[in-house]
Design goal:
The complex is a heterodimer of chains A (367) and B (391). Chain A has 367 residues and is mainly α. Helices cover 76% and strands 0% of the residues of chain A. Chain A has helices at residues 4-22, 24-31, 38-59, 65-106, 114-130, 133-157, 175-181, 184-190, 208-233, 235-238, 244-250, 262-292, 298-314, 319-366. Chain A starts with a helix and ends with a helix. With 391 residues, chain B is an alpha/beta fold. In chain B, strands 1, 2, 3, 4, 5, 6, 7, 8 and 9 form a nine-stranded mixed beta sheet that branches. A four-stranded mixed beta sheet of chain B has the order 10-11-12-13. The chains are: A mainly alpha (367), B alpha/beta (391).
Chain lengths: 367, 391
C-alpha cells in the first residue's frame, strides 16, 4: 500500500515525464505566445477522464483493472481485455524508452547504441517493480526533491534572458481554435494517466483526490514551464528547436567558467522519464500477473524486458514519424483504450448488477 | 553456501558494470581540438565556403603551472574549404589531428562578403548542432576575414577571450555595442522582421609575425591587433549597410541600451565632454487623422565627471547646460531617425510598435509604418559632478 502523498507525487512526475521531451516545441508551434494556456484546457479534460475512471473503480472497490475485467466479463473475455491493457501499457513503455534514447543520442551521447539505454533502463525498472508497489512509490518520493529544485533552479538561472516582449501581442494567436487542433495534447500526456489507475486501489484510504490534485499540479507545472520557455526563447526559436528546455539551459552562462550546466537538465529529464517507465512497466507486469498468477516472477520480467526493448527499437523510425503519429492518431488510439474499454467495463458491470438484482428478486419470489 | 552467494553477488556486480554505458564514447581532453572562435567566409562567385577554426593550444596555456611557453602560439587557426558547412565536419580531418569540439567556442565572425550574401545558412547550421551554442556573439569582419583570423591579441592570450571581454567592456562603458548581438538574438529578431546592427571588427595587422613571442615582445598594442568599431546593418539575415560610431551611439540609445557614453557638446562656445546614461525610454503611439505619430521620450542622467573643460557653477547655469544638451541631442536623434528612414531601415522598431498598439478600426500596413511620424524628445538631469571648479 502507498500513501496519498506518494501517489500524488507519482502522478505529477508521470505526466511531466516525456512531455518535456517531446511536446514542448510542437505545442509552441500550435499556440504561439499564448501556449501556456493550452495545458490548462487539456488538464481539465484530463481531470474529467480521471473522474470517469474513478466511477469504475468506485463500483469495484479494492479491485485492480485486470481484476475488474475478469470479474465483470468472465475468464475468457476478461483475459482478452486485460491483454489489451497490457498491450497498451507495453506500447506506451516502448514509446517512452525510444523517446529517451532519441534524446540521449541527439544531445550528449551520439554514439551509444539505442538498445543500451533501453535495456539498462528496463533492467532497473523491472528490478524496482519486482520489489512491489511500495518501492516504486518510495523511489519516486525520494527523487522528487532532486528533480524539482534543480529544474526550477536552472530555469531561474536562465531568467537573465527573459523578455516580456516575447508574449506580445497577448491572446492574439486564436488560441481557442489552436487548442482544438492540438487534440493530441489531450491524449498525450493526459489520457495516458490511465496507467496511474493501476495504483489507485493500492492507495491507503482513498487516492481519488490525490489523483485529481496530481493532474492539476502537473498541469500548472507544465503551464509554468511553457511560460518560461516562451519568455526565455521566444516563439520562433522554441517552435523550431527539438529540445527547447535543453537549449534554454544550454545558453545559461554563470560568469566565464560555468557555461555548460545543461547536464543538470538532462539528468532531471532522464529521471522523470524513468519514473514514467516505472509506472508503465508496473502496469504491464501487473496486468499479466493478475491474469496468469505466475509462481515465479523472473520469467515474466525477462520476457517483458525483451518485448519492451523490441518495441522501443522498432516503434518508429525517426522523431519526425513520431511527431506525425502524435498529431494524427494519438487521440484516437488513446481513446480506444482509456475511454472505450473502461466504458465497456462500466456498461458490463451495470448490466451485471441489474441482472443479478433481478435474479435475486426472482429467486425470492420463487421461494 | 556463503561462498556461493558471494560468488553470485560478485558475478552480478561485474555484469552490472557493463551497464555503465556513460563512458562508452568518451574522449580524453587531449584528444579534443577545443575551438575558441569560428570564422566563416563565402566566395560569392564560386560559392566556395571557408571556415576558420581557432583551436586552443593547450601547451601554451597561461593557467598551467610554470612559465608560459611563449614560443608557442596560444591558438592555431585551421582553415577548411568546401561547398557546405555540414560537409566540412568531415573534411576538416584532412588537416586536424584531433576531434573537433565546438561546445565552448566564444565568438563567431562572418566576413563582410558572406554577410552580404546572408547569414541564414550559418545560423541554421549552428542551431542544428546539439553541441553548438547559439549564445555567442556574431560579428562581421570589415574587409577580408583571413588576416583577422591570423591576428594574435596582446594582454589576452586567446583572441576570442580578447574579443569577448572587449565586447563586455564596450557594452558597459559605451553605447558602441549593444547586448543583443548573440546568434540567438539575431535569429529571434530576424524572424520578427526587425532590422538589427551587429558590431564590425577590423584587423590592424599589417605584417603578421610568425610566432606569438614576437607579438608579445611588441609594445605597440595597436599594431597586429584588431579593433571593434562601426556596425553592420542586417535585414532578413543579410547585411545591407553600415553605421558609423556616432550613428551606433544613437541607435543603441534609441533601443534602450543602458551603457554609459561620453560625448563632446558645444556649450557656451566651449567643447565639453559629458558622460550620460539612459534612465528611461518611453515610446507611445497616437493617431492623428488616420496617421500614426510615434513619440519617443528619453530621460538621461548626465555626469560632468569627465568634463575638464567646463563645469557649471550655479543652478541657473546647470539648467542652461541641460537645456542645451537636450536641444543638441534632440536634433541629432531626429536627424539620425530621418536618415535611417530615407535608407528604409526600421532601426527603431517602429513597425513592431505600431503592430502592437493597433487601435480598433485602424488598418495596419507596411505603408502606415513608413508614413509614421516620429517625434523624439530628450530631457537630461545633471546628477553627478566630478570636480566643482576646474583649475
Amino acid at each position: 500500500m502507498i500513501s496519498r502523498w506518494q501517489f500524488f507525487l507519482l502522478t505529477i512526475n508521470y505526466i511531466l515525464g516525456t512531455t518535456f521531451f517531446v511536446l514542448i516545441s510542437r505545442l509552441v508551434k500550435q499556440g504561439g505566445q499564448d501556449t501556456w494556456l493550452m495545458p490548462l484546457w487539456a488538464g481539465s479534460f484530463g481531470i474529467l477522464c480521471a473522474l470517469f475512471w474513478m466511477v469504475l473503480f468506485r463500483w469495484h472497490p479494492g479491485k485492480s483493472l485486470p481484476q475488474i475485467a475478469l470479474a465483470v466479463c468472465g475468464r475468457p473475455l476478461g483475459t482478452a481485455m486485460s491483454m489489451l491493457f497490457f498491450f497498451y501499457f507495453s506500447v506506451l513503455a516502448g514509446w517512452v524508452l525510444r523517446n529517451l534514447s532519441d534524446f540521449m543520442n541527439a544531445t550528449i551521447m551520439p554514439e551509444t547504441p539505442k538498445s543500451v539505454f533501453h535495456i539498462s533502463f528496463l533492467l532497473v525498472a523491472c528490478y524496482t517493480v519486482a520489489l512491489g508497489v511500495e518501492s516504486v512509490a518510495r523511489l519516486n518520493q525520494l527523487v522528487t526533491p532532486f528533480l524539482f529544485f534543480p529544474f526550477w533552479f536552472v530555469l531561474l538561472l536562465a531568467a537573465v534572458n527573459w523578455d516580456w516582449n516575447r508574449f506580445q501581442p497577448v491572446l492574439a494567436s486564436e488560441i481557442w481554435r489552436n487548442m482544438l487542433e492540438a487534440h493530441f495534447f489531450l491524449g498525450f500526456p493526459y489520457m495516458e494517466t490511465f496507467a496511474m489507475t493501476m495504483f489507485l486501489p493500492l492507495v491507503k484510504q482513498d487516492g481519488n483526490r490525490a489523483f485529481v490534485l496530481g493532474i492539476a499540479t502537473a498541469t500548472l507545472s507544465l503551464s509554468m514551464t511553457l511560460f518560461m520557455i516562451i519568455g526565455l526563447l521566444g516563439v520562433d526559436r522554441a517552435s523550431r528547436l527539438t529540445y527547447p528546455i535543453y537549449i534554454v539551459v544550454q545558453e545559461v552562462a554563470i560568469g566565464e567558467m560555468i557555461v555548460n550546466i545543461h547536464s543538470v537538465i538532462s539528468v532531471v529529464l532522464l529521471i522523470l522519464i524513468f519514473i514514467k517507465l516505472l509506472v508503465l512497466v508496473y502496469g504491464a507486469y501487473e496486468s499479466l500477473r493478475h491474469v496468469f498468477r505466475p509462481k515465479r516472477q523472473w520469467p515474466h520480467f525477462l520476457a517483458l524486458t525483451l518485448l519492451l526493448s523490441g518495441i522501443a527499437a522498432s516503434i518508429y523510425e525517426n522523431p519526425i514519424q513520431n511527431g506525425e503519429w502524435n498529431e494524427k492518431y494519438t487521440f484516437a488510439f488513446d481513446s480506444f483504450f482509456v475511454l472505450f474499454l473502461p466504458f465497456l467495463l462500466l456498461a458490463a458491470s451495470w448490466l451485471r448488477r441489474k441482472f443479478n438484482r433481478r435474479n435475486h428478486w426472482n429467486k425470492r419470489s420463487a421461494n | 553456501m556463503v561462498r556461493r552467494q558471494t560468488a553470485t553477488a560478485f558475478f552480478i556486480l561485474v555484469f552490472l558494470s557493463m551497464l555503465l554505458a556513460a563512458c562508452w564514447d568518451k574522449t580524453e581532453l587531449n584528444e579534443l581540438a577545443l575551438v575558441s572562435m569560428i570564422g566563416v567566409d563565402s566566395d560569392p562567385e564560386s560559392g566556395v565556403k571557408t571556415v576558420y577554426f581557432q583551436v586552443v593550444n593547450p601547451l601554451s596555456s597561461s593557467s598551467a603551472k610554470g612559465p608560459p611557453n611563449s614560443d608557442q602560439a596560444p591558438v592555431y587557426t585551421y582553415e577548411i574549404k568546401g561547398k557546405s558547412y555540414g560537409e566540412m565536419n568531415s573534411t576538416i580531418y584532412k588537416v586536424l589531428p584531433r576531434r573537433l569540439f565546438i561546445a565552448h567556442y566564444k565568438a563567431i565572425i562572418v566576413s563582410e562578403r558572406a554577410a552580404k550574401q546572408g547569414v541564414r545558412e550559418i545560423v541554421n547550421f549552428i542551431e542544428m548542432q546539439p553541441n553548438g551554442r547559439a549564445s555567442v556573439p556574431l560579428l562581421i569582419s570589415d574587409g577580408p576575414l583571413s588576416p583577422f583570423m591570423h591576428t594574435l591579441t596582446p594582454l589576452e592570450r586567446v583572441p576570442s577571450d580578447a574579443l569577448d571581454s572587449r565586447l563586455r567592456q564596450l557594452t558597459r562603458h559605451s553605447l558602441l555595442t549593444g547586448k543583443q548581438i548573440m546568434v540567438n538574438n539575431v535569429i529571434e529578431r530576424m524572424e520578427n522582421g526587425e532590422t538589427i546592427v551587429l558590431p564590425l571588427v577590423t584587423s590592424q595587422a599589417e605584417n603578421v609575425p610568425a610566432d606569438s613571442g614576437e607579438t608579445a615582445a611588441n609594445i605597440n598594442a595597436k599594431q597586429n591587433n584588431f579593433t571593434i568599431g562601426g556596425g553592420a546593418v542586417l535585414q532578413d539575415y543579410r547585411m545591407v549597410g553600415r553605421l558609423n560610431d556616432k550613428e551606433l551611439i544613437w541607435y543603441h540609445l534609441l533601443n534602450g541600451e543602458k551603457g554609459r557614453q561620453a560625448l563632446r557638446f558645444l556649450i557656451d562656445g566651449k567643447r565639453t565632454s559629458l558622460e550620460w546614461k539612459l534612465v528611461r525610454l518611453e515610446r507611445t503611439v497616437h493617431w492623428q487623422q488616420g496617421q500614426p505619430v510615434v513619440r519617443i521620450h528619453l530621460s538621461l542622467k548626465l555626469s560632468s565627471a569627465l568634463s575638464s573643460e567646463y563645469v557649471p557653477e550655479t543652478r541657473r547655469k546647470i539648467i542652461q547646460l541641460e537645456d542645451q544638451v537636450n536641444r543638441i541631442m534632440t536634433d541629432e536623434l531626429n536627424a539620425f531617425q530621418e536618415k535611417m528612414k530615407t535608407k528604409g531601415w526600421d532601426l527603431l522598431r517602429i513597425e513592431k510598435l505600431l503592430q502592437r498598439s493597433r487601435l480598433p478600426g485602424q488598418q495596419h500596413s507596411a505603408t502606415t509604418a513608413k508614413n509614421a511620424k516620429v517625434v523624439i524628445s530628450v530631457t537630461t538631469k545633471l546628477s553627478q559632478v566630478g570636480m566643482n571648479t576646474p583649475y
